[in-house]
């Protein structure tokens, strides 16, 4: 029994959905062929490697789709080809996704560049900090600049970003005092960057900053009727682009499908690259075995890290249970791993029982049911029927909440086709079934499991 528990514990933890895979990890699966043939190394990486000017690119996709894992692959690839890459997950220590503004991002970039480029001349940023200290010192009463050396003054940027993230009462005060001086901060930061680029080790010829997890910034409609996403990525785009190095920002997928999509392209000079779901079903609601096989490979590679002899297909009481798990995930990697972890939690001994899997599915379905507002069921029914979305605030929110998922494939003419569907777990919710059956009374209705 102890041995069974030890094995289950290892399996449970190998499916950690919140740990991006580092570049070269044995558990990584290349899903390019079932994600519309997109490749971040080509679409984003080559833009940097081929360009004679600095670039600023946007990278989008549903939260939990695997963007961080892909960005870590990109970081290594660029590093191998002569780029010094500063990567950071902005929500870990720098910004609060529930309440973030452009100033927070600028300060986060400043802090991370200072930490990564230790040999560069920091004097311009130290001078900026000293010039602003009378405005900020009462917000940092435990810190004094008097008599401190440069090396000890710089961590104050980390203190500022920490307070932005963790202390709501100070967040707006810090922004109010920094906002009027962001242009001078950018000027000082660019002076620092220029000196840093000259001091990079000989194998590096370019500097790249990747700010990850900005896509987690929660959409908020502000007093002027526009979203905070627009204020950050459109209104402050010139400042976001102003740093004198290559830049990659993750952005909320809902912004990419807003009525400002063409503005994004015009402003940033290229389309935002999107990481779609793994296609586990077709637009005709049929299982797509190539995609399902990829999902199973993803699970198998993680299990093999524990014991190469373990087979993912043998871990379920019934063979069709694994197929169901893959389909119910919708090709969403984090959902897949969460469903797997939950099923293991209700398992005492392998194989995983059908009852444990169904409980995992049912509990996650409840979460999705609680996410959907009463007036959104009909919109979801229309998306499931048409496989398309309407460009409005309601559908953008449903994209952000992962109730609607995006898929891509190449057709017979090698054209990329983009389509949408609801998360498969929603099909089993009564409110959705009622809305769908009311909308399509003459068609085959959904049964209690949500199957067409």
TrEMBL record:
Keywords, sorted A to Z: ATP-binding, Nucleotide-binding
Q: Does the keyword Nucleotide-binding apply?
A: yes
Is Nucleotide-binding set as a keyword in this record? yes
A Gene Ontology molecular-function term? ATP binding
Official protein name in the record: ATP-binding protein
């Amino acid at each position: 029994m102890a041995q069974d528990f030890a094995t289950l514990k290892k399996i449970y933890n190998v499916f950690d959905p919140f740990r991006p895979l580092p570049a070269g990890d044995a558990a990584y699966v290349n899903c390019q062929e079932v994600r519309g043939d997109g490749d971040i190394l080509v679409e984003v990486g080559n833009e940097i490697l081929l360009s004679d000017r600095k670039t600023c690119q946007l990278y989008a996709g549903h939260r939990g789709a695997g963007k961080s894992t892909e960005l870590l692959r990109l970081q290594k690839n660029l590093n191998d080809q002569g780029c010094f890459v500063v990567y950071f997950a902005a929500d870990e220590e720098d910004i609060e996704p529930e309440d973030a503004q452009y100033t927070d991002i600028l300060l986060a970039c400043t802090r991370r560049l200072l930490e990564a480029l230790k040999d560069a001349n920091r004097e311009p940023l130290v001078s900026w900090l000293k010039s602003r200290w009378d405005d900020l010192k009462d917000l940092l009463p435990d810190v004094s600049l008097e008599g401190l050396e440069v090396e000890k003054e710089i961590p104050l940027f980390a203190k500022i970003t920490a307070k932005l993230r963790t202390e709501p009462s100070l967040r707006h005060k810090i922004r109010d005092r920094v906002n009027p001086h962001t242009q001078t901060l950018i000027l000082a930061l660019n002076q620092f960057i220029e000196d840093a680029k000259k001091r990079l080790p000989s194998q590096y010829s370019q500097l790249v900053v990747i700010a990850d997890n900005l896509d987690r910034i929660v959409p908020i409609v502000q007093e002027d009727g526009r979203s905070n996403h627009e204020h950050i990525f459109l209104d402050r785009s010139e400042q976001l682009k102003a740093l004198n190095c290559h830049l990659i920002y993750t952005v909320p997928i809902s912004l990419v499908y807003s009525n400002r999509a063409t503005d994004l392209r015009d402003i940033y000079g290229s389309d935002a690259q999107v990481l779609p779901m793994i296609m586990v079903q077709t637009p005709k609601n049929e299982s797509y075995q190539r995609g399902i096989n990829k999902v199973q490979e993803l699970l198998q590679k993680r299990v093999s890290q524990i014991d190469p002899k373990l087979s993912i297909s043998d871990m379920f009481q019934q063979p069709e249970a694994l197929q169901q798990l893959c389909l119910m995930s919708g090709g969403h990697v984090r959902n897949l791993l969460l469903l797997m972890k939950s099923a293991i939690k209700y398992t005492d001994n392998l194989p995983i029982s059908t009852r444990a899997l169904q409980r995992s599915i049912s509990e996650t379905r409840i979460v999705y049911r609680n996410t959907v507002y009463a007036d959104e069921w009909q919109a979801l029914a229309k998306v499931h029927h048409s496989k398309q979305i309407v460009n409005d605030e309601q559908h953008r929110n449903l994209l952000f909440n992962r109730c609607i998922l995006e898929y891509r494939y190449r057709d017979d003419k090698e054209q990329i086709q983009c389509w949408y569907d609801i998360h498969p777990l929603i099909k089993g919710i009564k409110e959705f079934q009622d809305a769908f059956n009311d909308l399509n009374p003459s068609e085959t209705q959904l049964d209690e499991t949500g199957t067409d």
